[in-house]
Specification:
This protein has 12 helices and no strands. The chain is mainly α and 327 residues long. Helix 3 runs parallel beside helix 11, helix 3 crosses helix 12 and helix 5 packs antiparallel against helix 11.
């Protein structure tokens, strides 16, 4: 049987939403080791001031990197007409918006409650404001997941059916962008219903488990198809064909973005799954939980770096913008 008793109290029912596990789960672990109470019965902080400063600084630093990197990415995409003409970049722009929302909303809200819990105690994790932050967090997280899934499907469609893909109208892309945000809203509403005790923990957990597994399976399957089709294409086409090299670079870049996303999110998801089914596993070291949380948030900062290394046009535009700033 899964460990369901007081699960929400422990903050470990955030499968894919990425909000609860962090401090609140670590607080539970610390409480189990009686470190929240001194021998005299007085309340003690769940971590030292030094630890608080280290983790707060780490989250603040990644927030700055997220904002700078993704704002720069949006400027590059909006000023470079060549990049903007590539309709696949519509989804990269959408991903940059979702990542920027992580830096503007999700991390600051999480960091506020993280610090407040150090000052005021565990009651902070039961406040209404923290419940709202969890809904916001799952909203931006789902936006990223859905965007990466649609990116993979769009690339697979372009490789398998290039003649049909070439004649797709822009409104098809706009429709998919709208669908991404609509589904993200619907998923975050499920989280809200769970917070209001309108849904059971088991329903919410298994729904998110299936959702994440399905999105990951679709994404991986799409890239397997892309790899196989492009392997055949490279074997048939003339090596001088410029479009072949462009397709290859784009596929590599999108594949890298997805792999980094999976690797940075997977530790957090694995911890959630393990703790759901293994009650004794709640007592993991709090450093492990914080690091998994940091990796999860850190993913929103790496995509502009990937663009710079793997997209020459993006790199040239960034260099040009930086030169103008120096002038």
């Amino acid at each position: 049987m899964p460990a369901t008793k007081d699960f929400n109290k422990f903050g470990l029912n955030e499968y894919v939403s990425s909000c609860d596990m962090g401090c609140h789960q670590c607080n539970r672990s610390v409480m189990n080791n009686s470190s929240l109470q001194s021998k005299g019965g007085e309340k003690e902080a769940f971590m030292s001031f030094t630890e608080l400063m280290v983790w707060s600084s780490a989250f603040a630093f990644v927030t700055v990197i997220i904002l700078v990197g993704n704002v720069l990415a949006l400027i590059v995409f909006s000023t470079n007409k060549k990049l903007l003409r590539m309709r696949a970049n519509f989804f990269l722009i959408n991903l940059a918006v979702a990542d920027m929302m992580v830096g503007v909303l999700a991390i600051p809200m999480y960091l506020y409650h993280f610090v407040a819990a150090w000052h005021k105690g565990n009651g902070v994790w039961m406040q209404r404001s923290y419940q709202i932050s969890k809904v916001v967090d799952i909203f931006v997280g789902c936006a990223s997941i859905f965007t990466l899934t649609v990116i993979a499907l769009e690339r697979a469609f372009s490789v398998c059916l290039p003649h049909i893909h070439r004649h797709l109208k822009n409104k098809v892309y706009y429709l998919h962008l709208g669908l991404i945000w609509l589904l993200s809203v619907l998923i975050s509403l499920l989280r809200l219903f769970f917070e209001e005790n309108m849904l059971s923990l088991e329903f919410f957990f298994y729904f998110m488990l299936v959702f994440f597994a399905l999105a990951l399976s679709i994404t991986c399957s799409s890239y397997i198809v892309i790899w196989y089709r492009m392997k055949l294409r490279f074997a048939r086409r003339d090596s001088k064909r410029r479009s072949t090299e462009q397709d290859k670079r784009l596929a590599l870049m999108l594949f890298t973005v997805t792999i980094v996303f999976v690797l940075s999110w997977m530790p957090f998801q694995i911890i959630n799954i393990v703790i759901f089914f293994c009650r004794p596993c709640e007592n993991i070291p709090h450093e492990v939980a914080y690091f998994a949380k940091f990796l999860h948030y850190g993913n929103s900062s790496v995509n502009p770096i990937i663009y710079s290394f793997l997209v020459p046009e993006f790199r040239r535009t960034v260099t040009c913008l930086l030169r103008k700033l120096r002038i």
